[in-house]
Amino acid sequence: MTQNRTLIIGLHGAVGSYLARLLQARGWQVSGTHGGDDRVCRRLGITDDIEIIDADTARERAATGAQNLIFACAEGAAPALALAEAVFAAAGQSRLCHVATLAELQLPAVGRLAAQIATWRQAGRADAVNALLGAHDSRLGPHDSLPARIIRTAYAAAQGEAPDVAPLQLVETGAVDWGWTPEYVDAVARIATAEQLADRVVVSGHLMTAAEIADHAFAYFRQPVAGRVHFAPAAQPQPPQAGSAAALKAAIGWSATTHGRDLVRAWCEGAADRL
Fold this sequence. Notes:
single chain, UDP-galactose 4-epimerase, domain 1, three-stranded mixed sheet, 11 helices
């Protein structure tokens, strides 16, 4: 039986690395690029299970149709986005899946690639799809995300560090749909391998405010939140949330199982390694 082969552009980030781990565990032959940054792959322990290739090799494999499925998980990184555009443009018979957050669509290169994917599919040029993610995080996510900043402050309090001269200053943007990255990549895989391709938005269907994240995080570390975090009101109301958890479940049979307090607990459990 021929083994399915996938190429992932963007193993430098959590989405690409978690996706690589998931597909490798499901029997796929996984190769990918990380632009010299393999920290997340090493943290996940997958460096011996996947093949790391350079940009030239990625373009060559795409052009020859050597991959069944190609993912672009650039996470806003300019070099990975440029490579993804080149690889997608050169791709032969491979199916293409562009993965980005809804927030990243504001970046010109991300918005351009998302629009190109939709155009290609509508024109019948390629099997191509956009998997767009709502807000999400993990223990291996960026250090400057909202959850990471809150959890770092709560962890510092638990370690007995004196509070800063001023508390952590955050803007309360209202209730936001948050999810767990390791779960979201399962939804991405389902979107990319569906018989009928359609652009979809991955959301959990469960909302949390920044203040609620802080309450859960400080409760996890058994610390008072008062005096540690200050929330200023947003200058503008939060725009309506895109995506529907119910519609996503009906389309691909996926729904989030980690949310609310359990989601914050999952983030907090990796606090020491994330600092």
